[in-house]
Amino acid sequence: MSTSEINSALAATLTPAEEKLRAAAGKAKVKNVTQILHMLTPITVDFAAGVAGAPPTILHVELCNSGQLPIDWRIILRTDQEIDLENWIDLGLPTSKEDEEQLNIVENKVMDVWPRKGQLAPGDKGLLTLTYTHEQLGDHKLPLLLEVEGGKRLHVVLHGLTLKEDASLLRFHSKEHYFKPVAIGQSEPSVQMYELRNIGPQTLDYIVDMSPIEHLKTTNYGFKVLECMNPQGVVPPFGVAYIKWRFQPMEMMIYQVYVPITTVGAGTTEIIKFVGRGYHPTAEGAFKHLPEECQSMPSTWPGYSHLTSPELEAASARSFVLTCVGLPLGTLPALSLTRRLVTLTSHATKPFEFEWDLSAAATLEGKIKVEPWSGVIQGGAQMLFKVEYAAGAWPEAFDLEVRCMLFPIAAEDAPPIPQTDAEVFANDGVDFRTTKTLGTLQSGAQAGGRKLAAERHTVSTMGKFNHAGESLEPRAPVGFHTQFNMAAHLLEERYQTAEDVTQVVLNIEATVLLESAYTETYGPDMYRFHYIPLRIAPPKREPSAA
């Protein structure tokens, strides 16, 4: 979503182009919006892709004034006749096919932004909603000018793609991927991930062309600087898969390689540039990350905090929100066990059945578990989930998403709500209900790459009190987003299937090190801080063929 780029641009001093535009404000010198945008470096906000006829993709952006002065902001499009523009801005007329396409996007509300202007006092927040409807096939781009009065001006391009329902297409996380830097001399560097997303209803196979990686090996005296651990695989419908890489630099330098990745069946090939940096662990400034490396490391983003949450109104009766932006588990020793709690709040008026889709974590060395894994959440209720990560025996670094799939059920099919404390406290505060048929999905309905059975099971759901009888105060409903500093949080609501399925996404990230590497970096006291159920030596890795 280019969150880090936008925050960095907003926090930076005015560029020469912005200084020139500010100096021209209110003067007779006339420029149109297109000319202004050409003076600024574009930043793309990606709506990703959807199939024709799917519900709209909606992004909620919370703008936050973190400064000491009040500000006025506005967004200018080509056809914004309702905005009182400064006398030196001319909207201009469409002069090219590109201009006509952008006018079509605005007039038919293929993409929409609301509101277009606002005021923020110091510390105030405001909600900006971006909408992309999947009614017209094609690749859609809408440039806009984000202007802070007397200050920054950004050229932001909204980008989305709408395909036919039977389309087969992989959406690549980026065309240029930077690995986390690795110290030279590490015998077991962490495994890193690259994301592939399937935005269609068909299962897709991918193949990584290994010839550039073999060439890199040859030029480094037969040493595997970069190793792809799963060069072939499957991406489920509307799901994600992760290609696992092991980057092990020989020298203090930047390595780069262009790797073709082919989508089998679709007959398409994308060339991805992979970049990795080796550094000396004791060199001065060795741990300072390059700007490009920070794009895949949210903890380095300006203004980022996974603890803060946006104040979103429950605009939809089918809204579900989590209490945290994600679960950054930090750096962990191998074989350790880490647990976190998250709460799901329902703003719906009727009960929904939920089931967690953990398929994206299937390729991890460690294991992710969510309890309860499935069940029913009542309208207006909250539910507590325990997320557990059991680290594997080998190093890895990952940032992936798991999904809570929610399916509406009829009120008569919903399990009864406990009416007495005795019912709630049954089985130590957990109400175990019997297996029940909660509804039938139409033939072929899919979510997260799985067929959904008509017979579904309701498992343990947390009561209102804990086992000691102490009241658990309800938590305020908050959203699950990526923070965006003068643009502070993003919420993506995607309904990617035609079967009335709601998805809530939770990102989990962690880095796992061997005991020796962890102790050397953080010390034995920090190592003993972690709970490690099995304190055993990791198994020996079988040497791979040269």
| Count of domains | 3
Average the pLDDT over all residues and give the rounded result.
75
Low-confidence stretches: 81-91, 314-318, 421-499
Strands, total number = 37
CATH top level of the largest domain is Mainly Beta
Radius of gyration: 25 Å
Portion of residues in beta strands equals 35-45%
CATH topology of the largest domain: Immunoglobulin-like
- Rounded to the nearest angstrom, the distance between the terminal CA atoms is 39 Å
Biggest β-sheet strands, sense, barrel: 6 strands, mixed
Number of helical stretches of at least 4 residues: 9
Structural class: mainly beta
What sort of overall outline do the alpha carbons produce when their principal axes are compared?
A: globular
Tell me the helix content.
Answer: 10-25%
- The CATH architecture designation of the largest domain is Sandwich
CATH superfamily of the largest domain: Immunoglobulins
Key attributes of the depicted protein:
single chain; 546 residues; mainly beta; Immunoglobulin-like; 3 domains; 6-stranded mixed sheet; 5-stranded mixed sheet; 9 helices; globular
3D structure, described in words:
- 13% of the residues lie in helices and 39% in strands.
- It starts with a helix and ends in a 17-residue tail after the last helix.
- The protein is mostly beta strands and 546 residues long.
- The strands form 10 sheets. Strands 12, 13, 15, 17, 19 and 20 form a 6-stranded mixed β-sheet that branches.
- Strand 9 (138-148) and strand 10 form a beta hairpin.
- The radius of gyration is 25 Å and the shape is globular.
